[in-house]
Amino acid sequence: MKLGVDLTSGLNRNLTAWKSSSDPSPGEYCNAMDIDGDPELFLWDGTRKLWRTGPWNGQHFSGIPGTTTYQGFIFSFVNNKEEVTYSYDIVNQSLVSRLVVNESGVLQRSVWLAGNGGWNIFWFAPMDQCDPLSTCGPYGACDPNNSPICECLQGFTPKSPANWELRDGSDGCVRKTKLDCKNGTDGFVTVSRVKLPDTSNCSVDMSMNLDECKAMCLKNCSCTAYAGAIIGGGGSGCIMWLSELTDIRLYTDSGQDLYVRLAAADIAAAQSHGSGHAPIAIIVVLVLVVLLLVCVGFFLWRRKKRRRVMLGATSLSDQNISEEHFEGDDLELPLFELGNVAAATDNFSILNKLGEGGFGPVYKGKLGDGQEIAVKRLAKTSVQGLDEFKNEVVLIAKLQHRNLVRLVGCCIQGEERMLIYEYMVNKSLDAFLFDKEKSALLNWQTRYHIIVGIARGLVYLHQDSRFRIIHRDLKASNVLLDKEMNPKISDFGMARIFGGDETEVNTRRVVGTYGYMSPEYAMDGVFSVKSDVFSFGVLVLEIISGKKNRGVYAHSSHLNLLAHAWSLWNEEKSLQLVDESLGYSFPANEVIKCIKVGLLCVQERPEDRPLMSSVVLMLGSDSAAIPNPRQPGFGTRRIPLEVESSSSKQDSCTLNSMSVTMLQGR
């Protein structure tokens, strides 16, 4: 397949979306080449640019660094006097792949799974909050792993500090010090691992090397930055930006170097901040390295001798995780001695008790080094606790994400089984959300930040982690909040790993919490990533309304929050759902968008619910088209054949926010 412009005939090949899934007439969105400056592909909504690939750097598009890892495809880019085109070929001719722009404005690469007889989304864009064009404005850089996601480049400061504090970086940044081109005192600071800025207004010279590019940029008073055009073979070519730098994105372990022009004063500030007293720093670093090596060696020796956690000693639950998922992996965790944990919690004092679930009690503690921890202690009376313990140790030890709770270690001594987590000073979301006084502390910006954070955590679990993981018990009490109110998904005792070719699983052992369970899971034991999507939708509506999804709403005569929200949506009165504690201090359009997304997630049929990756896109973009929701799964009178969870109680199943266990069907 080939996209781009034939310069001899004027033929422009692009991808255009259908108007709808059932109407193949041309829609609003298309993916087409822009040949101004350094050519790159853009996703368009009519005449408005939504997303871009970045320029081709000889190996991949600057904004799609993962392309080089796609072993099944060969990508190529041609830029000469006859054509400017991008194309791809498939290595394995038995593989069927397609690249489309869907009716919602999402560019998707899919592959056909012969075994399942369906299309699987291999890659898509826009993918996250940093993908929409110029999210952080001129001279702002977007990092999806930071909070807030926008930061100014060195030598720049927010143009609108007030908006910046409200996590709106779209105004971008301005220079701290004006450039002084005439006196020749300007210089450059290196910004590493970036998606190169929008190249629509830049100058390209493929005959120059990087030093020549720098000299040419200094001579041109309009030049704001430069970079190498080709990154392979030692680098070659020159790109010079002749206006503001927009749509910069930061990567963790990929991207390119960008050399940004700064005034002499800002260059000096950057150098003093970065390198200060170099000789002294080198000596200090060498000493620290030696000490670190000694400490690491001692630590490894101690851990090997006394603190090795051999998870293989106990067989894993067949219903949760099998050993084959981790064959050959080293599942080591810091192993805490019982005496140290007891000392940290004041011998498990009732005063340090944070709460209790089916797994057992949770205590606050403080280690000898001052680190605060939360200790989850397996109760001897817990029926499912041992399986959940194994599940949680194996899973969380393998997961690393800013929106998942971090496991510090565990304690396995005698009959004691304990999990040690980082302590979350603000405890769980439900403690704020459903408390009249505390809910007032959750302004709309905080609620929206929590919604997006939970969504990003689920995207990691469903598609970005080493394994595809279904949480199965997502609810307000299982979302913890750190001191900055960042959400952390917790409690993986009921989680399930999916195999590479699994899309859904049927089980007679239903676990989770009524009110958050999807209808197909609660009634028939069928679960998939769409089960978590349903739970997320319930949680979104709870966060917006400040109400639990249970009970009868006196003013609506509906059974639960979902039915109430659906009724208000159909009556075009959705804003009446908003928590009264917010007053009128919220952006109506953003709230309505979140309500719409929440209703999409709780639709009755799982195939109608969006993937969490699409949810993140819809939440993070003002331009993404959001389809209208269909009727939610309100619940039913049917009872599952067998339901279990970490709860030790057997209350009525009409209490749809409780976790239920071992209920027999009648």
From TrEMBL:
Keyword Nucleotide-binding among UniProt keywords: yes
Keywords from the named record: ATP-binding, Disulfide bond, EGF-like domain, Glycoprotein, Kinase, Membrane, Nucleotide-binding, Serine/threonine-protein kinase, Signal, Transferase, Transmembrane, Transmembrane helix
Domain spans labelled EGF-like: 126-162
Superkingdom: Eukaryota
The protein's enzyme class: transferase
GO CC annotations on file: plasma membrane
Chemical reaction(s) catalysed: L-threonyl-[protein] + ATP = O-phospho-L-threonyl-[protein] + ADP + H(+); L-seryl-[protein] + ATP = O-phospho-L-seryl-[protein] + ADP + H(+)
Enzyme Commission code: 2.7.11.1
Domain Apple per the UniProt entry, residue ranges: 181-263
Annotated Gene3D superfamilies: Phosphorylase Kinase, domain 1, Transferase(Phosphotransferase) domain 1
Entry GO MF terms: ATP binding; protein serine/threonine kinase activity
UniProt cross-references to InterPro entries, sorted A to Z: Bulb-type_lectin_dom_sf (IPR036426), EGF (IPR000742), Kinase-like_dom_sf (IPR011009), Pan_app (IPR003609), Prot_kinase_dom (IPR000719), S-locus_recpt_kinase_C (IPR021820), S_locus_glycoprot_dom (IPR000858), Ser-Thr/Tyr_kinase_cat_dom (IPR001245)
SUPFAM superfamilies per the UniProt record, alphabetical: alpha-D-mannose-specific plant lectins, Protein kinase-like (PK-like)
Record-level GO BP terms: recognition of pollen
Positions of transmembrane segments: 280-301
UniProt cross-references to CDD domains, sorted A to Z: PAN_AP_plant (cd01098), STKc_IRAK (cd14066)
Keyword Acetylation included in the entry's annotation: no
Record-annotated Protein kinase domain positions: 348-634
Protein name: non-specific serine/threonine protein kinase
Organism annotation: Elaeis guineensis var. tenera (Oil palm)
Gene: LOC105036383
